[in-house]
Write a structure and sequence with these properties.
Length: about 260
């Protein structure tokens, strides 16, 4: 696919859901924050359009007759797409794993929690970017949809639990929609039994409600820890869906795609 210039984005927004919870609001997030990229198979009258941010992508359109090479920009992503795209993705990528996901919406008060002595739970500011950048490397996804730690720290959309300047846990708006804000959370190893994640999520949810939106929560069906934390924070299951984790590109061009489909 080719990357589209910002001038064409308003017309493309109609391809994607409006006012939906979870990653379905990714297009709204990209439009609102300027983080992320838009893709199409061609600049005029596109047949397929995708929006991506961090390692997430939403794909829509008509896959019939589409060259496989068109999908190559969605390698190493978690793609939410209709099932009709699956055969094409399997022909393009070395790996396509269907993963069951659950979407929760805030519907009850959180369980009460009191942070340990010496820990402060507060909204992060731009000055907290170094602390956010210092989280465990495997947790760098937490700020990916904001363009990095500086973007998230300065967004006003993150709350952290800090002790002497060190960030022990963080909860943030991962996908900013017009009606919902999808929540993500990370607690540093060694601090996951202290209820710091719950404290951060609860504070963030209060902020989201004050902005006139509803918190949502997305996680894997198999993420028992995440599902328990969602319940403790007052989220209740609303829907389920499937996204597809893609590997590297293995089809190099459209002619190879034609041979694959023959």
């Amino acid at each position: 696919m080719i990357e589209l210039a910002p001038s064409g984005l308003p017309a493309l927004a109609r391809w994607f859901p409006v006012g939906k919870p979870g990653v379905a609001a990714l297009a709204e997030h990209v439009l609102a924050t300027g983080n992320g990229r838009w893709w199409a198979d061609r600049p005029e009258a596109p047949r397929v359009v995708a929006v991506s941010c961090g390692d997430r992508a939403v794909l829509r359109g008509d896959v019939h007759g589409l060259p496989l090479s068109t999908l190559g920009n969605l390698a190493a992503s978690r793609v939410e797409a209709p099932a009709r795209f699956v055969p094409a993705m399997r022909a393009v990528f070395s790996r396509v794993e269907a993963r069951e996901r659950m979407v929760y919406v805030k519907g009850a008060p959180p369980l009460p929690v009191r942070p340990p002595r010496g820990v402060v739970v507060r909204r992060l500011t731009a000055e907290d970017a170094p602390a956010l950048a210092g989280v465990a490397p495997e947790a760098s996804w937490i700020h990916a949809t904001w363009g990095g730690p500086h973007g998230l720290a300065g967004s006003g959309a993150a709350w952290g639990a800090l002790r002497r300047g060190r960030l022990l846990a963080v909860a943030c708006t991962y996908v900013l929609g017009s009606r919902y804000e999808d929540v993500a959370v990370h607690a540093e190893p060694g601090h996951r039994a202290e209820d710091l994640a719950l404290a951060c999520v609860s504070a963030l949810c209060g902020d989201i409600a004050a902005r006139g939106r509803t918190p949502s929560w997305s996680c894997s069906r198999h993420d028992r820890t995440g599902r328990l934390l969602a319940w403790q924070a007052g989220f209740r299951l609303q829907q389920e869906y499937v996204h597809y984790a893609t590997g590297r590109v293995r089809v190099k061009d459209a002619s190879e795609f034609a041979q694959t489909r023959a």
